[in-house]
Specification:
Blueprint lengths: L3 E6 L6 H11 L2 E4 H8 L5 H10 L12 H9 L2 H28 L4 E5 L14 E6 L2 H10 L4 H11 L2 H5 L5 E4 L4 H24 L4
Helix pairs in contact: 1-9, 2-5, 3-5
Length: 210
């Protein structure tokens, strides 16, 4: 039996990393797809060469690494360019995420969390037992993004690039977690959701009447 696998997704600034942190506290292994994407775009990796070929050498910094900030400004200003970048990066991310999941299974961790905005679109949800959609109120979302140092123009670009992602993903979600309230309440909801998931997994394995 493999470790319980949770896919964690939702709009930018709604608290995916916070919830992932709570699950890490419980003892789950967390795989951040953004971190994996950076790994597969490192110099010497196939995605690096493909990105440079597609977008040009001007996005390579003096130290030989990708200028991810400049690349981000380019793709988030043009949906077609964003799709082109994702088509290059997502296959490598899927392979590495699956490798990390299998490593976690071998390490006998109780559960694995795959945190990704493009969990469903990028094909990562197929590796998961459940998809948890993280949402919050729009005003809180913008406030959190501003707290990361993003200006209003950049915030608008990032939100526009995602569209109404929360609505699109609701049908794919096993559970919806709203992080708008006090942090202690959010932590309690996460813990309760995890315990529910464990109970359901046990019942499937041995039957509810045993």
């Amino acid at each position: 039996m493999h470790a319980i696998r949770i896919g964690l997704t939702g709009p930018i600034g709604c608290g995916k990393s916070t919830i992932a942190g709570f699950l890490r506290e419980i003892g789950l292994e967390v795989i951040d797809a953004d971190v994996v994407a950076r790994e597969v775009m490192e110099p010497g990796k196939p995605a690096f060469e493909a990105v440079v070929e597609a977008f040009g050498p001007s996005f390579v910094r003096a130290d030989g690494t990708l200028d991810r900030a400049a690349l981000g400004r380019r793709v988030f200003a043009d949906p077609a360019e964003l799709r082109r970048l994702e088509a290059i990066v997502h296959p490598g991310v899927r392979v590495r995420v699956l490798e990390r999941i299998l490593e976690a299974d071998r390490d006998l961790v109780p559960g694995v969390v795959v945190e990704a905005i493009k969990l469903v679109e990028g094909g990562l949800a197929t590796f998961c037992d459940e998809v948890w959609l993280v949402v919050c109120e729009p005003g809180i979302q913008r406030e959190r993004l501003g707290g990361r140092g993003l200006d209003e123009v950049t915030i608008d670009q990032r939100l526009a690039a995602q569209g109404d992602i929360a609505t699109r993903l609701r049908d794919a979600a096993s559970r919806v977690l709203d992080t708008s309230g006090p942090i202690a309440e959010v932590r309690a909801r996460v813990r309760a959701a995890w315990l529910d998931l464990v109970r359901e997994a046990v019942e499937r394995a041995i039957g509810p009447d045993l």
